């Protein structure tokens, strides 16, 4: 290890961005200058997507136009639906959504159009189509036929409709929609950086998004929302929670849903997601819902008290998604449905003033040596 190297690029600023600002000193986050909490509670995910892509809040007519455009892009080709119908039912849903996005790219004859308008078209197209890829795959693994999109429904309502054939209570939709806004964008996180690296080679937007999905899958990044729910299931009951956490820490286990590379004293998005999770628990009002709420409170308090490490967004999002009825392996694809907005905004920003991303490395392998012919080895 060398003192001159910033391993994992920790603390390194690699480019400018005007999309979001992560402020660890105040545990806050803005998208294009708007506080994420305000967007989550006072706007909806469609308005947030508009802000991320266009820079300002839409007027009423701009928003109406944008909603129409998103709805008009919904719907998968018969070819893609038949590919989804052939996916391995045991495959991880992140692998299947990665494959579906890649398939969408090869269906688009303008995939290489990287003009600002071309990128914007494809960004809206992916926002509109990824939910159906996830929902159709969810139903396929249950042996059920896909349910097509409903133009009368919002982005979040339509997703529940395509998964379950019904739209739940408004509080559940609101909780889901808030999670979409909170997950949408977070500066140079690993998956966004992966997308920017791919875009910087002037590859196409679908390739950059496909790579970003691969980066998001890992449990140190987006995959943590699934890992959190596995942890809650392992803990089992609220009365086990404190002891479970103290033992896990003693055993030096990594506790999923805690810690963050940038925030060191709390993730800006957690209070809003926790409030939404609690509001949903109160509406659902079952023993199971209260159990996961209480358990997560105890785990959070114990971790902060014992290690001073705070929960990240995946911690409240995991159990919230579970109580909405989603299977655990679907949680990270839900993140994809949201982060497609941030990724594509970053791809456009990267291409606007592109410079190939190619850092240097510190070689630590053997000194130069000669190749001994095979007969002499
Ligand atoms: C939406 C998102 O992607 S948010 C991130 C989701 N990921 C997770 O929740 C996975 C669990 N968390 C982690 O693995 C880490 O906190 C990361 C990957 C998010 C950040 O990692 P880094 O910035 O590299 O932090 P780093 O690993 O250096 O941690 C610093 C110290 O805190 C400890 N620590 C950090 N997170 C955790 C954790 N979740 N559980 C236990 N200890 C932890 C580390 O062991 C380390 O201790 P040490 O100094 O005694 O070695
Ligand atoms: O910023 C990060 O490193 C991870 C994160 O919270 C996100 O991508 O939302």
Automatic annotation (TrEMBL):
GO biological process: carbohydrate metabolic process; tricarboxylic acid cycle
Keyword Transcription set for record: no
Pathway membership, UniProt: Carbohydrate metabolism; tricarboxylic acid cycle; isocitrate from oxaloacetate: step 1/2
Record's catalysed reaction(s): oxaloacetate + acetyl-CoA + H2O = citrate + CoA + H(+)
Acyltransferase as UniProt keyword: yes
Positions of the catalytic residues: 260, 314
Record PROSITE patterns: CITRATE_SYNTHASE
Alphabetic keyword roster: Acyltransferase, Transferase, Tricarboxylic acid cycle
Pfam families reported in the protein's UniProt record: Citrate_synt
Single GO cellular component term: cytosol
GO MF, one annotated term: citrate synthase activity
InterPro entries to which the protein is assigned, alphabetical: 2-MeCitrate/Citrate_synth_II, Citrate_synth-like_lrg_a-sub, Citrate_synth-like_sm_a-sub, Citrate_synthase, Citrate_synthase_AS, Citrate_synthase_bac-typ, Citrate_synthase_sf
Entries under NCBIfam families matching the protein: cit_synth_II (TIGR01800), PRK14033.1 (NF010636)
PANTHER family: CITRATE SYNTHASE, CITRATE SYNTHASE, PEROXISOMAL
Family to which the UniProt record says this protein belongs: Belongs to the citrate synthase family.
Protein name: Citrate synthase
Organism of derivation: Aquisalinus luteolus
Lineage of origin: Bacteria, Pseudomonadati, Pseudomonadota, Alphaproteobacteria, Parvularculales
